[in-house]
Amino acid sequence: MCSGDGECRPLGFLLGLPFAFLSLLVSIVGLVIWIVGLLLSCICPCCLCVTVIVEMALELVKAPIHVMGWFTSQIPC
């Protein structure tokens, strides 16, 4: 089943799908926070805390990719 390079992990991918779905929901929340944070930073660019919130929201948006990568790397072929 594996191509020999050690990167083929279909079981990890399948087991990670429910968690990727949950992290997709979290990323949607992160997207909303990111949009609101961008609007607030345009209104008042002197607020440093808004910038930190926008950066954290970007990490929430990237969550599904991180979750699938983690699950795929944990389960051997």
Residue stretches low in confidence (pLDDT < 50, at least 5 long) are none
Distance between the termini: 8 Å
What is the N-to-C order of secondary-structure elements (H for helix, E for strand)?
HHH
Which radius of gyration do the C-alpha atoms yield? 17 Å
Number of helices: 3
| Beta-strand content bin | under 5%
Number of strands: 0
Estimate percent helicity. Answer: over 70%
InterPro entries: TAXIMIN_1/2 (IPR055283)
Protein name: Transmembrane protein
Keywords: Membrane, Transmembrane, Transmembrane helix
Transmembrane segments: 12-40
Which features would summarize this protein structure in a list?
single chain; 77 residues; mainly alpha; 3 helices; transmembrane; membrane; Transmembrane protein
Record the SSE blueprint.
Elements: H1 10-43, H2 48-61, H3 63-74
Helix pairs in contact: 1-2, 1-3
Transmembrane segments: 12-40
Keywords: Membrane, Transmembrane, Transmembrane helix
InterPro entries: TAXIMIN_1/2
Structural write-up:
- This protein is mostly helical and 77 residues long.
- The chain has one domain (20-74).
- 78% of the residues lie in helices and 0% in strands.
- The chain has three helices and no strands.
- It has helices at 10-43, 48-61, 63-74.
- Helix 1 (10-43) runs antiparallel to helix 3.
- The longest helix is centred in the middle third of the chain and has 34 residues, at 10-43.
Task: Give a short summary of the structure.
With 77 residues, this protein is mostly helical.
